[in-house]
């Protein structure tokens, strides 16, 4: 989408689609039920706290502690990070105590001792009331075969299931009388079973507190509403008060990570006020494909960050084609106390008009500022900067109380957010949207490669691909993809390459521009050939047509799409204060729509605003508060006073950074952040500089930054690596560890990649050691980073790594940057 602006020319013959929002038709308080995930967390620290906290996740589903189904994702273990970041409740998938899939059916007598162990452990936890027991998983297919067509066989299977349900239910309650139990948890929706189940469970006093089933087909986008309506009618028929519903597995591979797909699912679940957890099709610990590495957002994460930012009540949204797969859908909220309305939409290409009806004049006045932003698809493993604002416009409220926001050139894989705030006086700054163009690999000139079709409606568990196609089998000496591009003027362009690399280590291609000498492009590993990631490089082009060739290097890479964007300077973003997370009771001032257009947040003692600030890499950035008075910024455990409009040099870690702002009294419009991660002033120590002991050793590697890394570290108390760090001054630093490891355990599952994390105990001087988790990096030769805040004294400091009980990750180097540079 090149821009989102009021229409200036004739519309297409069919005219734009219309999505209508009625601010006078409330659906009840925003619930945020649809942001959950099955195995979304793998370890304490994976995902990072900075990625988890902003999403306000209401439920996740995890395995019981020590469950053999997967090597990590244990409910009690991940509860530490989930609860400290404000998470809601954890569904315990009790049958994941078993190793095989489908679960080995050893009978109820084998299962009951396992149930006892699970319930005793959870009920003893201080947060036991925040766990929900799910005794059976997909009993319509596993163990009980409740989906058989033959009625007599169904009744026989059903009665066995009901006996076991009652037995396990009562066993749980005997140990934990206040336990909340969920079920029956079918793989799909079955009216026949649910009618029988409700009658049985009510009669035998074993009714679940949470009703669960799965929606795992692309047809669910069409059928869920009928399923929900039918279920509520079954409750009424049985005389049962409405139960809480959790659709504890939803969506297909082609949906995950794709904002334009996910907004369709989220809108239907939030509209019906049900909870829902995305399915676990791949690896644990990445929120079902919504985040990159440990701490970086992709496009899907930003959609859920927007969703978490809805406040007040949701209101009725009428899409062009309700309950229809792969069409424009949306959800919206109105918060009269904040005087904000928000609309999230997506799922279709082309043009649309968003008509917001019954805009309350008492809250908004006669004009509104409409701020439009886009969260694009960046791949499962492709980083996504803060969503670009496409338009800030003043819109006059019509005589009938409506405001229309035209959207032109929508991308179906993107989601869009419209924020309406009172117009006030002044003019918002025009959105700066650089020129950009996209080119599909399958439309380019392909030599010694093959075009493949990926995730579609008919192949919903295929991976998402731009345009549903990519180019693979680029494994021949002459394999290449040649793109013909056209740019409007001379300059430097950012080239983003959507790719996949399952070669087992870093892979390269040769980038050849107009026949010039090739430049090597190195691609980090990905989970598989179609688990899309993004590589960013810069190219210098003159105005006009060019031929960009990506030719085979030292290993195979798959190509999906390239994006060219004109570089207009260092990356920059303005984070609107009135859209930040808040604490206390700040007020909202919309007397002027100057600057970011969304007014100002007025902070007083006891108030707080928290901004989610993206950094493309570890390093120093320029951070400037647009405020009427001095504010304090808290970052990585450091607090610094910032004068209004005066830039600070702050160290940000790659990915998301939560920056908290307080003030005695200040009106804040935005927190502006620019830069690309300067390393000037940081301390850097290569692996070879460490003092090694107890079997830890230096290992040569062409992929390590200085040709070697520290390997065989840990797995005993004497195996350590000690770095001697010379700090120019005392204070809070970010310690950035460059590491790699590829621990896995193959459980024989057809579709889960059972990667494992490693931990290291990091000690600074004589202080207590801190255990830090390091996620699998997909190969032993790909180095990722994890940032850890540490306090250093001026002068000599010892930073020691070890792990007395297991292997620590391989360490390439460390960097340290003072938080306030």
Describe the structure.
With 821 residues, the chain is mainly beta. The protein has 9 helices and 52 strands. It has a 9-stranded mixed β-sheet. A hairpin with a 3-residue loop joins β10 (291-292) and β11 (296-297). α3 (108-123) runs parallel beside α4 and α5 (191-203) packs parallel to α6 (220-238). The radius of gyration is 27 Å and the shape is globular. Mean pLDDT is 96; it is low at 1-13.
Give me the secondary-structure category: mainly beta
The total beta strand count reads 52
User: Which regions contain 5 or more consecutive residues with pLDDT less than 50?
Assistant: 1-13
Order of strands across the biggest sheet? 17-16-19-14-13-12-1-15-18
Query: In whole angstroms, how far apart are the ends?
Result: 38 Å
Principal-axis shape equals: globular
Radius of gyration: 27 Å
The residue fraction in helices comes out at 10-25%
List its traits.
mainly beta, 821 residues, eight-stranded parallel barrel, 40% strand
In summary, what is this structure?
By secondary structure, the chain is mainly beta. The chain has 9 helices and 52 strands. It is globular and about 75 Å long.
List the helices and strands and how they pair.
Blueprint: E1 17-29, E2 36-38, H1 49-52, E3 59-62, H2 75-84, E4 89-93, H3 108-123, E5 131-134, H4 151-175, E6 180-186, H5 191-203, E7 210-215, H6 220-238, E8 244-250, H7 259-271, E9 275-278, E10 291-292, E11 296-297, H8 299-308, E12 313-318, E13 329-335, E14 340-346, E15 350-357, H9 361-364, E16 367-375, E17 388-396, E18 403-410, E19 415-422, E20 436-440, E21 445-447, E22 450-453, E23 469-472, E24 480-487, E25 491-500, E26 507-513, E27 519-523, E28 533-541, E29 544-552, E30 558-566, E31 572-576, E32 581-583, E33 587-589, E34 600-603, E35 608-615, E36 619-627, E37 631-635, E38 638-642, E39 648-652, E40 655-662, E41 666-678, E42 683-686, E43 691-693, E44 697-700, E45 708-711, E46 720-727, E47 731-740, E48 758-764, E49 770-774, E50 784-792, E51 795-802, E52 810-818
Parallel strand pairs: 1-15, 2-3, 2-9, 3-4, 4-5, 5-6, 6-7, 7-8, 8-9
Antiparallel strand pairs: 1-12, 10-11, 12-13, 13-14, 14-19, 15-18, 16-17, 16-19, 20-30, 21-24, 22-23, 24-29, 25-28, 25-30, 26-27, 26-29, 31-41, 32-35, 33-34, 34-41, 35-40, 36-39, 36-41, 37-38, 37-40, 42-52, 43-46, 44-45, 46-51, 47-50, 47-52, 48-49, 48-51
Helix pairs in contact: 3-4, 5-6
């Amino acid at each position: 989408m090149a821009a989102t602006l009021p229409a200036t020319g004739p519309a297409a013959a069919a005219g734009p689609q219309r999505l209508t929002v009625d601010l006078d038709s409330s659906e009840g308080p925003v619930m945020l039920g649809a942001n959950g995930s099955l195995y979304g967390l793998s370890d304490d620290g994976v995902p990072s706290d900075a990625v988890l906290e902003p999403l306000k996740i209401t439920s996740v589903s995890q395995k019981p502690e020590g469950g053999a189904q997967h090597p990590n994702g244990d409910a009690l273990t991940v509860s530490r990070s989930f609860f400290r970041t404000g998470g809601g409740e954890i569904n315990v998938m009790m049958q994941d105590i078993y190793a095989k899939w489908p679960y080995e059916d050893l009978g109820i007598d084998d299962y009951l001792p396992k149930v006892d162990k699970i319930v005793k452990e959870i009920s003893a936890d201080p947060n036991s009331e925040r766990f929900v027991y799910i005794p059976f998983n997909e009993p319509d297919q596993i163990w009980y075969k409740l989906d058989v067509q033959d009625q007599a066989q169904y009744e026989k299977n059903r009665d066995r299931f009901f006996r076991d349900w009652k037995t396990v239910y009562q066993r749980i309650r005997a140990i934990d009388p206040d336990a909340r139990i969920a079920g029956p948890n079918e793989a799909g929706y079955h009216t026949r079973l649910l009618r029988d189940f409700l009658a049985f469970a009510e009669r035998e006093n074993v009714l679940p507190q949470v009703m669960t089933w799965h929606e795992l087909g692309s047809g669910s986008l069409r059928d869920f509403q009928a399923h929900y309506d039918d279920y509520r009618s079954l409750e009424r028929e049985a005389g049962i008060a409405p139960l809480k519903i959790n659709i504890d597995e939803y969506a297909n591979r082609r949906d995950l990570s794709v904002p334009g797909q996910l907004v369709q699912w989220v809108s239907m679940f939030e509209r019906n006020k049900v909870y829902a957890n995305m399915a676990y099709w791949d690896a644990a610990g990445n929120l079902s494909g919504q985040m990159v590495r440990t701490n970086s957002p992709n496009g899907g994460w930003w959609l859920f960050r927007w969703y978490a930012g809805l406040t007040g009540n949701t209101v009725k949204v009428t899409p062009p084609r309700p309950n229809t797969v792969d069409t424009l859908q949306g959800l919206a909220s109105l918060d009269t106390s904040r005087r904000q309305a928000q609309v999230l939409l997506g799922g279709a290409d082309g043009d649309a008009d968003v008509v917001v009806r019954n805009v309350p004049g008492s809250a908004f006045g006669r004009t509104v500022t409409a701020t439009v932003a886009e969260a694009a698809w960046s791949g499962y493993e492709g980083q996504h900067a803060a969503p670009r604002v496409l338009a800030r416009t003043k819109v006059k409220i019509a005589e009938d109380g409506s405001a229309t926001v035209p959207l032109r050139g929508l991308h179906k894989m993107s989601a869009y957010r419209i924020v309406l705030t009172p117009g006030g006086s002044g003019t918002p700054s025009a959105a700066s949207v650089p020129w950009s163009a996209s080119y599909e690999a399958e439309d380019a000139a392909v030599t010694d490669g093959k075009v493949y079709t990926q995730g579609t409606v008919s192949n919903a568990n295929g991976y998402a691909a731009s345009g549903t196609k990519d180019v693979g089998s680029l494994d021949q000496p002459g394999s290449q993809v040649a793109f013909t591009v056209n740019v409007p003027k001379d300059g430097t362009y950012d080239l983003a390459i959507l790719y996949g690399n399952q070669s087992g280590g870093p892979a390269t291609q040769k980038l050849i521009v107009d026949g010039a000498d090739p430049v090597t492009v190195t691609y980090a590993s990905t989970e598989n050939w179609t688990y899309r990631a993004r590589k960013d490089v810069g190219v210098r082009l003159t105005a006009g047509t060019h031929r960009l060739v990506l030719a085979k290097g030292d290993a195979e890479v798959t190509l999906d799409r390239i994006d060219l964007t004109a570089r207009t300077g260092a990356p920059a973003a303005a984070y609107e204060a009135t859209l930040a997370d808040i604490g206390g009771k700040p007020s909202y001032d919309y007397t002027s729509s100057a600057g970011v257009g969304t007014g100002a947040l007025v902070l007083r003692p006891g108030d707080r605003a928290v901004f989610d600030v993206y950094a493309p890499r570890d390093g120093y950035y320029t951070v400037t508060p647009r405020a009427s008075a001095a504010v304090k910024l808290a970052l990585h455990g450091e607090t610094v006073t910032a004068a209004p409009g005066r830039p600070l040099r702050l160290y940000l870690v790659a990915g998301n950074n939560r920056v908290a702002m307080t003030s005695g009294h200040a009106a804040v419009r935005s927190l502006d952040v620019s830069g690309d991660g300067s390393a000037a002033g940081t301390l850097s120590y290569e692996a070879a500089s460490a003092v090694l002991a107890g079997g830890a050793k230096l290992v040569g590697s062409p992929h390590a930054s200085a040709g070697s890394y520290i390997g065989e570290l840990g797995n005993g108390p004497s195996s350590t690596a000690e770095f001697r760090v010379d700090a120019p001054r005392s204070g809070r630093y970010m310690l950035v560890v460059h590491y790699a490891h590829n621990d896995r355990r193959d459980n024989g599952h057809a579709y889960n990649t059972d990667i494992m994390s490693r931990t290291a105990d990091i000690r600074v001087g004589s202080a207590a050691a801190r255990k830090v988790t390091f996620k699998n990096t997909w190969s032993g030769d790909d180095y990722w980073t994890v940032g850890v805040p540490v306090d250093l004294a001026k002068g000599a400091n010892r930073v020691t790594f070890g792990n007395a009980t297991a292997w620590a990750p391989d360490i390439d180097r460390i960097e340290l940057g003072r938080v306030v540079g």
